[in-house]
Design brief:
Layout: E1 14-15, E2 20-21, E3 25-27, H1 41-53, E4 58-64, H2 82-86, H3 89-96, E5 101-106, E6 119-120, E7 134-135, H4 138-157, E8 162-167, H5 172-177, H6 192-210, E9 215-223, H7 232-245, E10 249-254, H8 274-280, E11 288-290, H9 297-305, E12 311-314, H10 316-320, H11 324-329, H12 347-350, E13 380-384, H13 388-399, E14 403-407, H14 417-420, H15 429-443, E15 446-448, E16 463-466, E17 470-472, E18 485-487, H16 488-492, E19 496-497, E20 501-505, H17 509-520, E21 530-531, H18 552-559, E22 582-586, H19 602-611, E23 615-617, E24 620-626, E25 629-634, E26 637-641, E27 645-648, E28 652-654, H20 657-664, E29 670-671, H21 683-696
Parallel strand pairs: 3-4, 3-12, 4-5, 5-8, 6-7, 8-9, 9-10, 10-11, 11-12, 13-14, 13-16, 14-15, 16-29, 18-27, 20-22, 20-27, 22-23
Antiparallel strand pairs: 1-2, 17-28, 19-21, 24-25, 25-26
The chain binds flavin-adenine dinucleotide, NADP nicotinamide-adenine-dinucleotide phosphate and iron/sulfur cluster.
């Protein structure tokens, strides 16, 4: 007898009339970079095959342009010739071999195209692109529709079960739909009916060309989050028109790329936008797909069980864990390697013209290259340090069959992730630690906590890996030893509770995170700094900041999202909550602090701190700290910041004492993570380096 699934709605099949999806999990479209070159198609096939084998119901590929004008970037993925269709057969066959279905996404970038050939309904430049588009002529519009139809036919020839027509996120179809970008006065612009015509003609003619047994998913822009965006009535009208034109499934699109509201970053509450899809549910008969920040099965099941959608779309969560669906179905959700929505290895890579991968799963998109093959020569391996680098190395090595002992001086695994998880908006980091706790158990790693090790303890091992992380860099300006000057470890570790005015020295990732922490952490007593004994440093001496990411209503008010999704674009006046403290965030380099933060998330960190009135200053000289405050010079002017504390976030140095001792004792060791190179170290590099070393041991 089979055990009933803990997620019955998620794993019930969906009958589309002419074909059936085996469950309600749609792998959402994600550009990986592998789509762009024919030579990468075997890798693309392997990447999708792992997700199909992992149990997903329907896959949607990254976007393929129907013609050159629609390229996202020069020589990007395109489907307009039969020879381009043939290479797709390896992808579709690989997916079908594992029982999943696959649709190719048709995406014309319109004015978001990053090249001078770009076209749009009207000659209106996008705020996020240096190129100004050419307005399509009436003949050009017809040719573009034909290009969509041709690409859909070729997709069918390539073995796809259907296509997804990308009608949202501010791309070409969305540009036609919106009065904000469509100022035409011909048959393709003007009132809503005419603005919708481009979208409905594409769907109608694709249906006509590809027949009744071809899946057409249409991604509808349900919440635009831009000024002059569609009103709710217009969205309902679009949904009904697309249904009438012959679509099979309606997927949800949230926000244009130029929107100034985060839609998928880690600080966005889970399933924050599922209510938009639920609001549309009574208006159409087509199956609807809910999207954005759905990363765990309980969240997905809740949406489906509540009747707010018929499928859930996840893109990054399946990059993070190809076996997500199988684990959920087997009641092993606690084994899922959860996407923490950091964007660091996926979207940030793509926006830097690199192939996507995943911070928590470095095998993503290199499945054929980074292989964790069983070892033929098991060895006794010691890994010292259970931060991200050591955790990745120990568990991959053990999975391969080595006998691994993992030591950490602390009484819990995670290293600096235990500080990161305390930052408001970074609650997802708890999931990575939960995942590794189970991985340690499942792979049989012998974990030794509260055990600082020295060179002598490592003498009997066949191989030693040093993953001892970093030490915070100290500063040397006058007064650096004043009691007001503390480390970020003191503040985030809970040893120090700061007063109402705080300066932060160093505006890197940690400086920004500490600022976020301080503007949220409630003050206990406005004038008193609490100092807990050092022994308590592992746990906060006071409650952690309450995070907007855990409360969709407060989060929407903070960012100016209309909770009823009725106003044009779904926007309203933002009402940020007042900051808990007055904070100055300082750096010595000239220019705006935060310039080196993540490509797709840096603007969110800067906007958050701006809303909390944090003074972000570059080009600062630190003159000294005394009882009156922090003396600094900016733009040639000296001033004293009347602060209660100065929190030092000045970067890190490798922690190498153990490695040096091993060398002195003649014991060979591998160095990984912060202990290897601390500069610009992040968890992406730490996990990648640990995994790759373990694959080679
Ligand atoms: P660590 O995490 O420092 O782990 C080293 C471990 O070694 C520790 O657990 C320590 O106890 C142990 N150890 C040291 N010496 C010994 C010894 N002799 N014996 C036994 N054990 C020992 N990175 C990102 O990519 N994205 C983020 O959003 C992000 N946010 C962050 C936010 C904060 C507040 C902080 C502090 C860091 C953040 N980071 C982030 C950085 C990330 O956490 C680090 O890059 C990563 O933890 C480095 O991993 P590691 O394994 O090299 O070292
Ligand atoms: P960092 O990014 O290197 O920033 C260090 C800051 O300290 C810089 O602003 C630097 O600016 C300043 N500084 C350096 N030496 C100094 C000195 N001697 N005196 C005073 N100021 C000094 O390091 P971090 O903020 O500690 O972050 C560590 C790593 O964690 C980063 O590489 C980052 O990738 C990762 N991280 C990532 C995130 C994320 O959201 N992705 C979040 C947190 C951490 P000036 O030299 O101009 O003063
Ligand atoms: Fe998710 Fe970060 Fe991996 Fe991207 S890199 S898939 S956001 S965990």
């Amino acid at each position: 007898m089979t055990t009933p699934s803990p997620y019955p709605h998620l794993f019930s099949p969906l009958d589309l009339g002419f074909t059936t999806l085996r469950n309600r999990i749609l792998m959402g479209s994600m550009h990986t970079g592998l789509e762009d070159r024919a030579r990468d198609f075997p890798k693309l096939a392997a990447y999708f095959a792992e997700r199909a084998a992992g149990g997903v119901g329907l896959i949607v590929t990254g976007g393929f342009a129907p013609n050159m004008m629609g390229w996202l970037a020069p020589f990007g993925g395109k489907l307009s010739w039969p020879w381009e269709a043939r290479k797709h057969r390896q992808v579709t066959a690989a997916v079908h071999g594992h029982g999943a279905k696959i649709c190719l996404q048709l995406l014309h970038a319109g004015r978001y195209a990053y090249h001078p050939l770009q076209v749009a309904p009207s000659r209106i430049k996008s705020p996020i692109n240096p190129f100004t588009p050419r307005a399509l002529t009436g003949f050009g519009v017809e040719r573009t529709i034909s290009a969509y139809v041709n690409a859909a036919r070729l997709a069918r020839d390539g073995g796809y079960d259907g296509v997804e027509v990308m009608g949202s996120e501010g791309y070409l179809i969305n540009q036609f739909l919106s009065a904000r970008t469509n100022r035409r006065t011909d048959a393709w612009g003007g009132d809503l009916r005419k603005r919708m015509r481009f979208a409905t003609e594409i769907v109608r003619r694709v249906r006509e060309a590809c027949g009744p047994d071809f899946i057409i998913v249409y991604r509808l822009s349900m919440l635009e989050l831009v000024p002059e965006g569609s009103s709710w009535d217009e969205i309902v009208a679009q949904a009904k028109a697309i249904e009438a034109a012959g679509a099979t499934v309606l997927n949800t699109g949230i926000g244009w790329h130029e929107a100034r509201v985060p839609t998928i970053a880690t600080s966005v509450p889970r399933a924050a936008f599922a209510g938009v899809t639920a609001k549309l549910r009574p208006e159409v008969k087509l199956p609807l797909v809910a999207t954005n920040r759905i990363n765990m099965p309980d969240v997905a099941e809740r949406i489906l069980a509540g009747g707010g959608a018929d499928l859930v779309s996840m893109a990054r969560p399946l990059l993070a864990d190809p076996a997500w669906a199988n684990k959920a179905r087997a009641g092993r959700a606690d084994r899922i390697n959860t996407c923490i929505a950091c964007n660091q290895a996926c979207l940030d890579h793509v926006f830097s013209q690199k192939n996507a991968s995943c911070l928590v799963n470095p095998r993503a998109c290199v499945e054929t290259e980074l292989v964790y093959a069983p070892t033929t020569a098991p060895r006794r391996i010691a890994v010292v340090g259970a931060g991200p680098a050591g955790l990745a190395c120990a568990t991959v090595a053990a999975e391969r069959g080595h006998r691994v002992t993992l030591f950490d001086a602390a009484d819990e695994i995670g290293g600096q992730f235990n500080l990161a998880k305390r930052i408001p908006g970074k609650e997802e980091f708890h999931e990575t630690l939960r995942y590794f706790r189970h991985r340690i158990e499942d792979t049989g790693v012998d974990l030794r906590l509260s055990m600082p090790v020295d060179a002598a303890a490592l003498a009997g091992f066949d191989a030693v890996v040093v993953a001892t992380g970093i030490r915070p860099r100290t500063v040397d300006f006058p007064g650096a030893d004043h009691p007001k000057v503390v480390s970020y470890l003191d503040v985030l570790g809970g040893r120090v509770r700061t007063g109402p005015r705080v300066a932060i020295v160093g505006a890197g990732g940690i400086g920004f995170d500490v600022a976020e922490f301080l503007v949220h952490q409630p003050l206990v007593d406005a004038s008193v700094m609490e100092v807990a004994p050092k022994a308590d440093a592992a746990e906060p001496a006071s409650p952690s900041p309450d995070s907007l990411s855990l409360d969709p209503a407060r989060w929407m008010a903070e960012w100016g999202v209309d909770p009823t999704f009725s106003s044009p674009g779904g926007l309203r006046r933002p009402e940020p909550e007042p900051p808990a403290r007055e904070v100055w965030l300082l750096q010595r380099s000239p220019g705006k602090p935060g310039a080196k933060l993540g490509k797709t998330t840096g603007w969110i960190h800067r906007a958050t701190l701006k809303a909390k009135q944090v003074a972000m200053l570059g080009g600062v000289s630190y003159l000294g700290v005394d009882d009156t405050g922090f003396r600094i010079r900016v733009d040639g002017q000296e001033q004293t910041l009347p602060v209660d504390q100065v929190v030092v976030c000045a970067g890190q140095e490798p922690r190498r004492d153990l490695f040096d001792a091993l060398q002195a004792a003649g014991i060979a060791a591998h160095l990984i993570g912060g202990a290897d190179i601390a500069a610009e170290l992040d968890a992406k590099r730490a996990i990648d380096q640990g995994s790759r070393l373990a694959a080679a041991l």
